Structure formats: C-alpha cells, structure tokens
C-alpha cells in the first residue's frame, strides 16, 4: 500500500 | 482593536463547520487586510488556509496584528446561537482575553452577545511556495463531493490522473474497483456545471479519501471547487468565498507502493 507522506516534506516551516 | 461586521453569520458558520473535523484549536490572525487562518491537522497530512479579506466585512477595522486563539468546538457552540441571516460582528481588544460576538437580527430588534475565552496557541506555521501546477480542474463542488463519497465506499485511497483525455478518479478496494472520468465540458444553460481542465503536463497522484471527504464539507460555501495538482506535491483544493476570499485545503500525497 502507498505510504502517506506529510506536509513538512513539501512546505517549509517558517 | 478589531471590529469586523459580516452581513450574514452563515458564512462564518459554514467555514467553521468545514474545518472542525481537521483542526481543534487555531489562531485567527487579524490585521488590516482581513482575517486569516492556517492550521494543520494532528497528523500533519492536511493543511487548512483561510482568508477572509477586509472587503468581505462592512465595516472592517483592525489597527494592528491581533491573533485570536480559538477552540473551534467553543466557537461552534456560540455560532449555533446565531441565525443564518443574522448580522455578525466580531470584536476584540488589542491584547484580548476574549473575543466578543454580537448577532443582530435584521428583521427584529433582537441582539445577542457572547464572549469566547481565548487561548495561547503556539502553532507551527508552514511556508507554502507559489506553485505553477501541472493541472488545474474546476468543477461543480457537489460533483467532487459525490465522487469522493462514492469512492470512499470502496476504498481508503483515490488515484487522480489528469491527462489530455480528462481527469480520472479511480480506486481499488476489497470488494472491487471503481472510477469516474470527467472531461472538459461547457454547459450552455448553467455555467456552474462546467468542468474545465487546464493541463500543462500529465499528473497522477494518490490521496486519502477520508481527508478529501472532510474537505468536501465546504461544498456549501461555493458551487465550484478548483483542484490543482503537480506530481509529487500536495493537492490544493480551493473554494472561492465572496470578495476574493478563499478556503483552501492542502493534502500531502501518498507515495510509493
């Protein structure tokens, strides 16, 4: 099954 | 201080109803451009970004930056005390302990007033880069809601595949599989029913249907929804609100097999 990624991998914390 | 008057309480009621399943506590960031909110769900898979521009209010006054940390369950309880057509005014001091909500009936002399205690919320803020998406689909929000609901009956995940042929939502589950394909479509009688697909390159991504179905709670806010996709970046699901305001949801894709 596909693994759920998280937003931090795409967006930077500011 | 903040003073923001909405012609219809219904708008805020619907916005809050649309996000309470994803977010429990969040800061409403108020400044002279309007009221903004950004919050992630607990598992950091989905992000809500709302902007209610000052033009959506009449009048709108906010002299300095004020963060209103609000528990959405509490806000929902208070907003239930407003009739949909009531005029709603939000008020807060510069360093507030409470936010004050006033509901006025346009037809009678009823005036209701509630205070909600504020919280200190230390919220992680994410920077969302401006993205040129490979594919954008604008479609009736009710249609997107129906597709999401139908496929959720079969599976936890949906594959969204956008090619020049159209956009295909497909899923595979224990009982079998299903798919819905939409093509660009112009309805001469009702442009709300149009499906428009802007594609610069083919995209195929997998998403959790549970989250998409949560986003679809916003369908009552707008007859149209815009899905923006690029390979290997979060999906953007956007509902337009009056006065150039918006409610956006971002959802991280599922990756790999």
Q: Can you lay out the helices and strands and say which pair or pack?
A:
The complex is a heterodimer of chains A (14) and B (257).
Chain A: E1 3-4, E2 12-13
Chain B: E1 2-6, H1 9-19, E2 25-31, E3 34-40, E4 46-53, E5 60-62, E6 66-71, H2 72-79, E7 87-92, E8 98-104, E9 111-117, E10 126-127, E11 135-140, H3 141-152, E12 157-163, E13 166-172, E14 177-182, E15 196-199, E16 203-208, H4 209-215, E17 224-229, E18 235-241, E19 245-251, E20 254-255
Antiparallel strand pairs in B: 1-5, 1-7, 2-3, 2-6, 3-4, 4-19, 7-8, 8-9, 11-15, 11-17, 12-13, 12-16, 13-14, 17-18, 18-19
Helix pairs in contact in B: 1-2, 3-4
Q: How is this structure best summarized?
A:
Chain A is mainly beta and 14 residues long.
Can you describe this structure?
The complex is a heterodimer of chains A (14) and B (257). Chain A is mostly beta strands. Chain A is 0% helix and 29% strand. Chain A has no helices and two strands. Chain A has strands at 3-4, 12-13. Chain A starts with a strand and ends with a strand. The mean pLDDT of chain A is 89. In chain B, strands 6-2-3-4-19-18-17-11-15 form a nine-stranded antiparallel sheet. Chain B starts with a strand and ends with a strand. Chain B contains four helices and 20 strands. The longest helix of chain B has 12 residues, at 141-152. Chain B is mainly β. In chain B, helix 1 (9-19) runs antiparallel to helix 2 and helix 3 packs antiparallel against helix 4. Strand 1 of chain A pairs antiparallel with strand 20 of chain B, so a sheet runs across the interface.
